[in-house]
Amino acid sequence: MSFTIAEIAQHINGKIVGDPNYIICGVGTLSSATSTQLSFLSNNKYKKFLSESKAGVIIVGEGLANSVNTNAIEVANPYVAYAKAATFICVDEKQLAKIHHTAWIDDSASIGANVSIGPNVSIAENVTIANNVRIAAGTVIEHDVSIAESSDVRANVTICYGSKIGAHVLIHPGVVIGADGFGIANDNGRWIKVPQLGSVVISDYVEIGANTTIDRGAIDDTFIAEGVKLDNQIQIAHNVKIGKHTVIAGCVGIAGSTTIGENCAVGGGSGVAGHLDIADGVQLMGMSMVTKSIRTSGVYSSGIPSEPSHTWQRNIARYRQLDKLFDRVKALEVTEKPQS
Amino acid sequence: MSFTIAEIAQHINGKIVGDPNYIICGVGTLSSATSTQLSFLSNNKYKKFLSESKAGVIIVGEGLANSVNTNAIEVANPYVAYAKAATFICVDEKQLAKIHHTAWIDDSASIGANVSIGPNVSIAENVTIANNVRIAAGTVIEHDVSIAESSDVRANVTICYGSKIGAHVLIHPGVVIGADGFGIANDNGRWIKVPQLGSVVISDYVEIGANTTIDRGAIDDTFIAEGVKLDNQIQIAHNVKIGKHTVIAGCVGIAGSTTIGENCAVGGGSGVAGHLDIADGVQLMGMSMVTKSIRTSGVYSSGIPSEPSHTWQRNIARYRQLDKLFDRVKALEVTEKPQS
Amino acid sequence: MSFTIAEIAQHINGKIVGDPNYIICGVGTLSSATSTQLSFLSNNKYKKFLSESKAGVIIVGEGLANSVNTNAIEVANPYVAYAKAATFICVDEKQLAKIHHTAWIDDSASIGANVSIGPNVSIAENVTIANNVRIAAGTVIEHDVSIAESSDVRANVTICYGSKIGAHVLIHPGVVIGADGFGIANDNGRWIKVPQLGSVVISDYVEIGANTTIDRGAIDDTFIAEGVKLDNQIQIAHNVKIGKHTVIAGCVGIAGSTTIGENCAVGGGSGVAGHLDIADGVQLMGMSMVTKSIRTSGVYSSGIPSEPSHTWQRNIARYRQLDKLFDRVKALEVTEKPQS
Predict the structure, then answer these.
(1) Of A158, A215, A318, the CB nearest to B156
(2) Does the N terminus or the C terminus of chain C have fewer Cβ atoms within 10 A?
(3) Poorest-pLDDT segment among A13-17, A332-336, B331-335, C256-260
(4) Cα-Cα-Cα-Cα dihedral of A225, A231, A232, A235, to 10°?
(5) CA nearest to C213 within chain B
């Protein structure tokens, strides 16, 4: 689609420095954009590319238009403005609603208006699908699931029985929602199954990345609050609760019954043990290992970053001798004292 | 379903303190259970909720009934008893066996009695499915797979050719069993494929969590012994062997040809390198990094738990100066000696 | 299939020590192979099994045939030779090309010659599938995807719209290619979606393990170069670029916009932060935590391997006292100096 810079600036509430009638029909990075594309600068690391960019217009922070050799739109938050502009220019929300003839939909299911259902989908007994929902090919919706309006369930997803999905939720391929939690009890050396009788509640505006898994609760429900964004390959165990507007990067595992607060950010590869409470506003850096509750907002880290293997081996050896080193220092201090 | 406390107590071999004719028709946690629900206390952390619970009956350890303000059932192991009671009260095993008309089953496949096969399932050549097996929607069973009686394969699972699945096995959505192991050989700078000619054998009473992957063997088979319980998002590489009644929590990776003993417990996020032997009865705490065989049962850990980022940075800096610190202490000791 | 040792030796360019007319019809490990099977020795750890092996022929390194009590084939690289011999003996590439009647293929899709398409596959608008491609059951190919010749897409895979798959690519079950990258912008406390407008390009001879995910680019494409081999459960974020002939083991996460060089090897469970550059020829040991670019080829490690939990706790306590220990040593040094 094509838009004038004036139309785009109005959409993102920005100030034009340049030609408002210039036509834009796509987006690009500062270094790849062509003269009909919009670009943006939000990370100062890339400021060096600003003057050389061949983009038709560049979204920049306030006061930066004079560093741009093409048209500019100044805004308070260039990344947010770019997100809105790119959606405006490039995303065509109007798709033909269509129920594919190879989909199987049980007669007891309730399907809203303007719903799209892809090939080889299966929708079981007593499912409720609200208006404007899309369900892509190969996805399985088990019995008694409800999906609220305008949610978008991509291909090969599994939503297990009884799960409740909010509105404007986006679920990527391969996601599994509502599989049994890992509940086992040791009965004289054999593990017996603890039935997983709770469900999963996904609130509005949640996004769930590819191949992420969210288990159903043991008794009560697993709960994901409004606006939570989950990346790929995440494991959310039974009875976890995640607060509003928290974001979790890829490959994270959250063990059972742990509560993560609101507005948290969990770095990729982190692991949070079970039955913990993480306060609102906690930021965990990548690969954090969390074994205790965190009661105060702030930034937390763990792990020792990689180094050349020969120094790594030496440092580990030293680490393992620490206890003896403390003894040696103690001995020196003891020897020292009588002298003073 | 509804049961008297007497019926439940008989099923779990417990001692009733209260009204044996009281009717129960569900389960709840100590804090959420209503007067028609059963609850339990197995973790003393929750003992404070005991007296306030509105549950109709509470399963407790021996001698604890007098702390309960409602009916109680005393047992030796409350968590095991709860698992059995909840299964008794809440799980209806009787499902209508049905082969869905959208499933594709090759003519050469052998399908037992009372088998359920869901929508859009595909079952290829020479597959053998025993009595009372259930296969849910979207699942793919490749040629020459066998599945023994009463196993339950949930939605969108892939079981690759030749895999052997035991009886009473439960496989959650998104699981992949029998994909090629990661076998490559470097032929003058290019990696060529080493054909993966073994298979996967899953023994009886194994449970496999959502999106877990178990690769086929390179020559011999990958083997999961009886009663093993695997959580979600686990990677089991080719030719791994896992001993009886071992449990593995989510997000664990076990590299190729490693053997894990019987009755082990592997914490979430752990990684075990290839070609190792882990003894029976080993417990690995969460996020363990195992690079050598473990010959003795016991509890093992690794990693340094998260801390505020400013102390984390300082501690890492100190860690990297350890070698020099050892030199400094050595120098002090040398200076010290002549004085004594 | 059956072959003489002479035929096999010719295929792998090896030197026969023994009977060239001996018949072989399978492969086995040194300890499991029977008299009609071929085996090999590439890891000296297994040399002790050489003399006792009952294999019909053993592939060994140059000069080792005299340690073998059966027929031998000497080669420069036994593992590469085994890979080629096992493929020659055991892999029958000739499969009947067949388009299954339950597959749905949009009329606008272009399907080459000798293509196999399995049950319940869906192939959307404007897809291009080249000659000799196989697509297994339950796989979803979204619109505008192209797959070049002789590629093999296994069951329950999702290839999202616009992805470009090269020739001779092997994609294992449960893989998701081209899901949205994790692009979000914080708009006054709420996260809004940054549209993911790039695509994914997978070059020739790439292998992708089960349940691995590769996200589409935000603006430019995510790129996997020729000959890259990825194991299971890997997460490749948006705009990552992976150089030729790099191999990545299971459970690795590579964050957004990071570039991995050519001929690298990334150990299982490693995590690489975003916006980094990893040089050609870098080897990361298992569970590496990479937070900075690596400019020089070589071997890198991180993490402290597991140990018995009681020494682990003691070592961590000491680690956390390091800052004070440095102060104590400093104090000793200061006391020392005036004395000298």
Answers:
(1) A158
(2) C
(3) A332-336
(4) -40
(5) B211
The amino acid sitting at C212 is T
Which of B253, B249, B203 is closest to B226 using CA atoms?
Answer: B203
- The span from the CA of A100 to the CA of C142, in Å, is 14
How many angstroms separate the CA atoms of A241 and A252, rounded?
Answer: 15
When CB atoms are compared, the residue of C235, C289, C294 closest to A233 is C235
pLDDT tens digit string along C10-29?
999 999 999 999 999 999 99
Distance between CA C183 and CA C160 in Å, rounded?
Answer: 17
Whether the pLDDT of residue A173 is over 50: the answer is yes
pLDDT at res. C221 = 98
Phi-psi region of B185 (alpha: psi -120 to 50; beta: other; left: phi over 0): beta
Q: Please confirm, yes or no, whether B11 is among the known catalytic residues.
A: no
User: How far apart, in whole angstroms, are the C-alpha atoms of residue C305 and residue C320?
Assistant: 18
For C298, the 3-state DSSP assignment is: strand
pLDDT digits (tens, 9 = 90+) for B180-205: 999 999 999 999 999 999 999 999 99
B104-300 maps to CATH 2.160.10.10: yes
The answer to whether residues B93 and B107 touch, using CB atoms and an 8 Å cutoff, is: no
Cβ separation A155–C140 shorter than 8 A: yes
Q: H/E element holding B192?
A: strand B190-193
Spatial distance between the Cα atoms of C213 and A339, rounded to a whole number of angstroms? 66
Which of A251, A252, A330 is most worth mutating to test chain C (most C CB atoms within 10 A of its CB)? A251
Domain residue limits, chain B: 3-90, 104-300, 310-339
Report CB contact under 8 Å: B233, A237: no
Q: Minimal Cα–Cα distance from B82 to chain C, Å?
A: 31
pLDDT at A340: 45
* CA closest to C232 among chain A residues: A233
CA C217 to chain centre: 21
Q: pLDDT tens across C177-200, in order?
A: 999 999 999 999 999 999 999 999
Residue range B89-141, pLDDT digits in tens: 998 766 678 999 999 999 999 999 999 999 999 999 999 999 999 999 999 99
Q: Which residue of B has its CA nearest to C308?
A: B300
| Enzyme catalytic residues of C | 238
What fold, for C3-90? 3.40.1390
pLDDT tens for residues C195-254?
999 999 999 999 999 999 999 999 999 999 999 999 999 999 999 999 999 999 999 999
Q: Reduce the secondary structure of chain C to three states and give it as a string.
A: CCEEHHHHHHHHCCEEECCCCCEECCECCCCCCCCCCEEECCCHHHHHHCCCCCCCEEEEECCCHHHCCCEEEEECCHHHHHHHHHHHHHCCCCCCCCECCCCEECCCCEECCCCEECCCCEECCCCEECCCCEECCCCEECCCCEECCCCEECCCCEECCCCEECCCCEECCCCEEEECCCCEEEECCEEEECCCCCCEEECCCCEECCCCEEECCCCCCEEECCCCEECCCCEECCCCEECCCCEECCCCEECCCCEECCCCEECCCCEECCCCEECCCEEECCCCEECCCECCCEEEECCCCCEEHHHHHHHHHHHHCHHHHHHHHHHHHHHHHHHC
- Quick one: DSSP state of residue A44? G
Q: Work out the average pLDDT over B234-240.
A: 98
Taking the C-alpha atoms of residue A314 and residue A66, their distance in angstroms, rounded to an integer, is: 53
Q: What is the DSSP string of A285-301?
A: PTT-EE-S-B-S-EEEE
Residues of B in contact with C207 (CB under 8 A): 184, 193
Using CB atoms, which residue from B122, B124, B191 is nearest to C227? Answer: B191
